[in-house]
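Dear colleague,

As promised, here are the two records you asked about, laid out in our usual form so they can be pasted straight into your sheet.

NAME FIELD: protein one
SEQUENCE, THEN STRUCTURE:
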Amino acid sequence: MSAPEDDKPASEPSASDVPELDERSEQTLRNLVRGAVAGAEPEAPDVLSGVQRRIRQRSRGKFYADGWSTARHPPIGTYLLTSVAMLILLLIAYSWFGSLSGEPSPVENQPAPVHIVVPRPAPS
């Protein structure tokens, strides 16, 4: 019967054959592996901007000419100013219409006089 060590293929190193790395070498090796893995993933091409540019060229500026829809990042400052302006307008309208409301005035509900009209007799 053979020993368990003899059953392993010759190409696999045993745990005692692998040299121990110090902390600095291990960190360097990790950085190299991370860099290799990060560089292996291809970056997706930016198809949207190319399509928008081609549509803008073919339509002679009718579509996507404003710059708002083709911007990389939304114009947050413009959205913020617009929302603040709308809030101010709503508060002004609320205060203006709020001052118009008040207590309801009492209404006297009396029935109107009823006049009974007797039909004329038909001519004979």
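NAME FIELD: protein two
SEQUENCE, THEN STRUCTURE:
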Amino acid sequence: MKTVSNTDWTKLASLKDAEINTSDIAELDDDFFKHAEIKVPPKKSVTMRLDADVLEWYKSQGQGYQTRINNLLRRYMEAQSQQR
């Protein structure tokens, strides 16, 4: 998010689902999901050099290590973009 939220996330996380007022949120029916699209940024294959111990650590965390590295780089990119 680019703006500061006034939501008390700690309080919200402690609520049970039944305690959350969702009356102002429209129901998502079958028609919504018939037309819904998932938009994922395109991936591009690259070759990059990483320190061997860094790569081994990510690989040791199991399958999906490239996705985790991408997510970390994305969060850094977004944080840097917000500072400008």
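A couple of things worth noting about protein two: The chain has a mean pLDDT of 91. The two ends are 15 Å apart (CA to CA).

Best,
R.
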